[in-house]
Fold:
Amino acid sequence: MTQKFTPDPALKPTPEFKSDEYVPLKKEVYVKAGEDMSDKGYQEGTLAGAIRMRMRRDNKRFWAGDNISDYLHDSDKEHLITETTLAFEKVLDALLIDRENDPNSKGTAKRLAKMYFNEIMAGRYEQAPDATAFPNDSADRYEGMLVVRSELRSMCSHHHQPVSGVAYIGIIAAEKLIGLSKYTRIAQWCARRGTLQEELCNDIAREISKATESENVAVYVQAVHGCCENRGIMAHSSLTQTTVLKGAFKEDQGTKKEFFDNIKMQQEFAPR
Ligand SMILES: [Zn+2]
Structure:
C-alpha cells in the first residue's frame, strides 16, 4: 500500500515561481585588474583569492603549516581579517547562533579572525624571527652541546584544537651562535600554525639548523593535544612525544645519550 504524498504547506514554492524558467543569478563577480586570468578563468575579487592565485601560479605550497609571508604586504593583514570576519559570520549563521542578539556572540566572528591571524596562526603570516648570529670561531670557542627548553603553543591542522607542550632543542655549537631566546622564538614561529606534531618537530630542526648553520641538531617535543582531550577518545592525560635527530645526534650514541640525559635533568629541575 502506498501512502499519498502531501506536500508540507510551509515548503510550498511561491506561486510566481515556475520550475522551467531560468532564474538569473544576481551575484556580481569582480576581476582584479592586472592579474593573469588565463589559466584559472575568473576569480572573485577577494584579496585572499588574489593571493591564493599568485601562490598557485608559482607552485607555492600553502598548507596550514606553511609560512606564506613572502606573499603578503604589511597592509594585507587588516584586509584579510575583514574578509575572514565575514566568513566566520557565515559559519556562525550556519551553526544557527544568533550573533545579532546573543551578547557573547556579537563580536565573535571578528575575534576569531583576529585570533587566527595575530595569534594561533601568526607563524604562517610573519617573517622568520630575526636571529642575529655571533661568531664562535676564536681559539677557546664553545664546542659543547647546548640544550634549550622552549614552551610551545600550537594547533592541530585536523581539528583546529590547541596543542601545548615543550620542545627541547639540542645543538652542537658550530661557527655561529644565536641568542638563547632565539631558539624559543624560532620554535614558536614554527608552532603558531596549523601543524602535525611530527612535522612541527621537523620544521623546528630545519629552522634551527638554518639559523645556527649547525648540522648537528636534535629536537624532542612532548605535547598534549586538544583533539585527543576534548573530543574523540577524550584522553585527558595523553602525551605525544616526537624526536628528530640530525648529524652527530643520530650517528653518535654518546651524543644522543647526552641529549636525553640533559632533557631528564631539565625535567627534574622544572617538571612540566
Ligand atoms: Zn587533531
Summary: DSSP finds nine helices and seven strands in the chain. The longest strand covers residues 145-156.
